[in-house]
User: What shape does this take?
Amino acid sequence: MDLSLTIGGPQGGGIDTSSNMINRAFAEAGYNVFAVREYHSNIKGRHSYNHIRVKEERPRSLRYPVDILVALDADTLYEHMDDVVAGSKVIYDKSFESGDLSQARLIMRDTAKRIKERLQGENLPLNVNGVIQHMKNNGVITIAVPFDAVVNSAISGGTPTRYFNTLGSAITLSIAGLPVNFTSEAIKQVFASKPKVVEDNVKVVEAAYKYCEENKLSGVPLKSFPKKQRLLLTGNDAAAIGKVMGGLRFQTYYPITPASDESTVLEEHETLSLIENEKSSLEKAGVVVIQTEDEISAITMAMGAALTGTRSATATSGPGFSLMAEGISFAGMDEVPIVITLYQRGGPSTGLPTRNGQSDLLFALNTGHGEFPRIVLSSGDIEECAYDAMKALNYAQRYQLPVIHLIDKNLATTSDLIPEIDKSRVKLIPAVSVSDKEEFLRYNLNTETGISKVGYFGKNIFWMTGDEHDELGHVTEDPEVRDRQMQKRFQKLETAAHEIPLEDRVQVFGEKEADITFVTWGSQKGPILDVIDDLKKEGIKANMLYLKMFEPFPSEFVKSFLSRSKLVVDVESNILAQASRVIRLETGIEIENAILKYSGRHMTEDEILSAAKKIINKKEKFIVEVLTNGA
Amino acid sequence: MAHNFKNDVVIDWCPGCGDFGILTSITQALTEMNLGGEDVVAVSGIGCSGKTPHYLNIAGVHTLHGRAIPFATGVKLANPNLKVILPSGDGDLLSIGAGHFVAEGRRNTGLTIILFDNAVYGLTKGQAAPTMQLGEKTKSLARENIFGKVNPIALALSSGYSFVARGFSFDMKQLKGLIKMALNHKGSAVIDVLQPCPTYNDVNTMDWYRERVYRLEDEPSWDPVVTKDNADSAAMKFQQAYQKALEWGEKIPTGLFYQNKTIPSFTERLSQFVPNYLTNPPASQVVFNKDHYTVVDPEKTFSDKIIA
Ligand SMILES: Cc1ncc(C[n+]2csc(CCOP(=O)(O)OP(=O)(O)O)c2C)c(N)n1
Ligand code: SF4
Ligand SMILES: [Mg+2]
Assistant: This one.
């Protein structure tokens, strides 16, 4: 099975709950889901949707067209009218049929204009009926369900609209052929703590299934599989879990999308359960999470905590990261172990606050004045978010520097089912430290690795300053000491390049000898893996150079790999092809083709595939394909 | 043997600078409190004042311009057993760092903020600091100051600081006492220290202050302390402090303006939610076992994310 679903409705109208029900119901039946959230920077009313892919094996990407589209409002029909094709099913409330495009006032003006032109071009009325006709003309199966009546058949009294999201999910699941018991079980999980709510919603589920049965809408029953214990996580969740497993005990943040959910998850789980036998006498420990007055405070407060020996981090997105620049420079100069989880969204400025972007790579590599070593790593799927979070804390401790962990919005808010978080996959690396009360030189120059021993506030006396400093940490402008401290700091980067395993920096997937090589990072990893399989079926050999660490950059490997590749295509969610620029700087190799997307929406399997084929077929150089899927 | 809080580092302040008196008051206070060298941490911003941590034989960090407060808050929250002092400038704390100054009043973390109030930006050659009077013309200014003045005492009170005082760098006896009281206070303290800068501020000189300052504690009826037992006097004492804060010119009050011991500190507030926070704070936690694997059980901790 390979099912693509979209459920859309007004922001604040329970779309996430609907998606959660669908995800959990399929998970109960042993399937895998991959669910992406798209929403406006708005609290109530504007169009939001979840795009979900369901497979027996783990889905790694989204795909268009959509097989089942559920509209909890008329806007969804307008916005997604071309996401469905012949054979797709569209479910909506019958009452929407009276709606006119002019009433859909929360659709962005330019979007409405495009919809209007589209309908006018086909001589269709500018209303829901026009859209339905448009879909029918394309062979789409449109299903108008009397939402009110179905809810009322299950529940008397109350507000029927409150159950529309449950109804929409249940109809979808019934049409998909998922047996009702899994859907009811999902309802129980979603409303776990509220028995009465569970009861009512299960009634609605049953009514929805009955309605589908009576109207011959129910799908062919799907197989179910023995389910294993799994975790349903977003990238925000995974990073939070990875952080506490990696020893994080102090996190700061200033609210910003799509980063603050990570801190909220940490706050919700501030009580940590310790593993039996590992604890001394304690069963619980605590992680301190502080909402600061701004991001300048977030970065500096986390640094203050780090100086006591606490593993500390902050999480932010572009605008907040800009404010952190001076602090990050201090961490570089003063060798403060600190992790900054940078959730990328569409920039510049406030940009697309709730949409995807990968436009902060060059900034992450250059944030802060002056020259100082840093580690910049990036995650490409939800599991990686967890393990990389652990590793990022390790790098900070080992190399005593700022570590910037890049996660794009596509991962932050996407839900995925993870088999487990393996505690033994990452060992915690401690800092090289002195003993309590020992007198020492914090910036000891007598080191081959560049790593000087650290002490901690509360245990040792030592000094630090953002000015250039001597071994004791006092201000100096002595030219010789300046040179040696600069060299010592940068030596750590060489040590890191030497010590960090290559597979944590760059990976290759797909065929050894390939006709086409994709170069990418971040959330395009999943869709490209799917595209590699698709191309294989068509007899085209493809592989992927997947970048995980940009500083220290795996230059030698990338250089030798790319110089052996035939046709190279860089795939990124930005306009400057930033990773290509890094590669050119680090290896001298110029990648001539690119597939780029900067609309803020997910790159989907189908659009990368067709762009790749265009590039393969054109056989000319310097091709840039700009992708546009997604409402 | 008592710890020697003086450090063997050349001090490069100008001769006659008020900063020396503040430094001496700090070392005397720490010595008299019989603290160990590892018990106290100094966190400063940037400025002449910001150099203070280097002159103290305790752990110290000379941070970024304006950022001493959030830095120090991180230190204190990760290790609430530490005493944290913040010797920093008026430009630092009340201009570039003003947002943090206000936010810290709301937190009441337990920091001892020593505000070096010289009305100028010393280290950048005497520009007007937010504490300079409107219309004042020092020798370092090309024209008179056209900004109004922020009132550090009134701002500290309004921000919620639970200990607000003023000292004078040439009255080390009083200042030392205020620093000791502040260090023993469990919430956050602001001590506004009138500090002549002979190099750039030729208006607010040592003599100018000497003629004007008087000690609040010399008034027999002055009682600025709110305790559990007289908690109902808090509003009255706050108002009386505010009134004193407005006094400036002919007579300038110094001493303790307001202390409220009933406001829970931020570490106390956190300890209600974070298990074992005060006994096993972040800085004391062991995060991995002997084989270097995490001690956190992810499945128990994040059980709500499990589908089973
Ligand atoms: C972000 C930033 N902006 C500007 C400066 C330059 N600067 C250094 S010290 C200082 C003013 C210091 O004045 P104050 O805080 O009153 O301390 P004082 O020297 O008077 O003790 C400024 C603006 C800086 N270091 N950092
Ligand atoms: S410039 Fe002023 S504040 Fe700075 S050291 Fe000299 S006298 Fe002191
Ligand atoms: Mg000053």
Q: What stands out?
A: The pocket of thiamine diphosphate (ligand 1) is lined by residues B 46-49, 65, 89-92, 116, 118, 120-124, 129 (CB under 6 Å). Residues 232-425 of chain A form a domain with the Rossmann fold fold (CATH 3.40.50.970). The radius of gyration of chain A is 26 Å.
